[in-house]
Amino acid sequence: MSNLENQTIELTRRRLAEIKDQLYHGEIYRNLGTELDGVIKGIKKQPKTAVELPNDDGVKELLVTLNTAIQEDNLEGIDDDQLMLLVSHLGSKNPQIRDKGIYYFLNDAIQLHVITKEQLLMITNYLLQDEILFSHILERQNAAVFQRSFAILFLSVIAFIDRNGDSFLST
Fold this sequence. Notes:
The protein is an all-alpha fold and 171 residues long. It is built from eight helices and no strands. Helix 1 (3-24) runs antiparallel to helix 2 (32-41).
């Protein structure tokens, strides 16, 4: 991300923290929507740049192998490199890989305890990077939305798991 993007994101974070604090202290309530709208409208769009999407070569085959092992109740664990390869492809434009492939597999693997708490933390740290969460976010519509939205979607899955008894995230 460029320096201008980093500055804009940091300014937006600070302003949102101020609004949250004002809301918490009862200083704003009815004007919350207006305040948030002002933040959104204050963000200047950047010119479009090329979005580098993951190359899906080899991922389909890995998904088939892993899903077959799960169906045969023969998958006891997944290698960190394979796991991160899958997670890095949550931004794929191909819904068969992104939605029906990686997202479904990861959910199944978590439910079957194939993915460890340490690996969930590794995924969390990866997805929380600014380069993932805010990739091309200041530009007009672009394909980076897949990576951003699926990062948030999967982080919500991880937060749900953590809050429902598998506490592994720190405050």
